[in-house]
Amino acid sequence: MDQIGRIAQEHSDVTRRYFLQIGAAGAAALSVSKLWATEQGTQAHPLLAEAVSKLEYLTREENFRNAGRGKPKPHTLPPEKLREVGLARETWWLEVLPDPESDAKVERPLSRASGTALDWAGLMKLAETRAVRFMSVMSCTNGKEPFGMGLWEGVPMRDVVWLARPTGNVRRIFFYGYHNDDPKQRFQSSLPIGRVLEDPPGEHPVILCYKLNNEWLTPKRGGPVRVIVPEEYGNRSVKWLQRIMLTNSFKANDTYAEWNNDTVSHLKTCARFIHTPEKMKAGEPAAITGVAQVGMSGLSKVQYWLTPQDQPLAENDPYFSKAQWKDAEILPAPKHWGGGLDDGKLPPIPSQIDPATGKPHEWPMRNAFAHWATLITAPRPGNYDLRCRTIDANGVAQPMPRPFPKSGHNAIQKVQIVVEG
Hints:
Layout: H1 3-10, H2 14-29, H3 46-52, H4 79-84, E1 93-98, E2 105-106, E3 118-119, H5 120-130, E4 132-138, E5 148-156, H6 157-163, E6 166-168, E7 172-177, E8 188-192, H7 193-197, E9 207-212, E10 215-216, E11 226-228, E12 241-247, H8 255-258, E13 270-275, E14 279-281, E15 286-294, E16 301-308, E17 326-327, E18 329-330, E19 368-376, E20 382-391, E21 413-420
């Protein structure tokens, strides 16, 4: 089963409760779209209500797609071995060191040899005053489907870097985790030091993450501590973190770069289907649901296009800019977020949520999921292609402005539907 299938399977009754709770006033507020309400504006269309009843925003830990590397994969090691190599909370450690191949100046390196490496107790001490929470999607650069969306909690990486007292000649950092004590298995990523020490407006900090959906990070998810870079693809968010290196090198020395990938690509805005019917009746509506990954450029619309397979496509139009796209409906922010949280309720103060109202500061949220839905109708029997795309907040249609592979997969998705008489 693919990841979209897993997302659909895991979706529970979160949005069903939403429709039951909004009542007449809430449904009337949605009646600007005939998609959501009857002519009286008091009830969602039953087909659509049933489809969206299966949606859940936060992905349960067990349903995240996994991309762990290593032979054996570190999370599969027995508990005693995890403790031995520092992949248990009680034995975890982190070094922050100057790169021996550069002239980075660091006054107080955090090292195991000197007994100054950061341990779990030290990280939790920082967390008492410095912990942050935010929701963020996890995607692979070359993956067709997102891995899931989580509520991540951790300490900003800069707070740990400053413990080592860097004083100069630091232009980048690179970092890696445990990989079976085999240098050939090391998976490494890097960032400009400026991104670690300072957050762009509206952006979340790079964190040393220890919780997912308000639970301790499991070894399978990269625990006890991993990196989360909220606006980047998953290759930046290194698992099983054990070492941060400060360097004067100007090069991105990522493992992913060596694999011929773009390592400096922010998340792209794109749409994917969750539920589409394999068959439907001509002239009768069918419900469609999907998920939109909201990247750096935000999200203004999700659109769909249903076309008979025997209808010729426009020439010299690889991204279907001349097609008759129609707008789907972007679902509002939920009251219950799912993900295994108690009653689907968020813990206090995720940074995207207004503490006074309990609502997101903006919707859709960047670097996160938004769900969308629509009803489609085909006028006559036949074989059809159904496509979906996004329009970002700058008015640019997917897959532009960055359609190139190896910098994030955002090709327009197509599914086939049989329409019967």
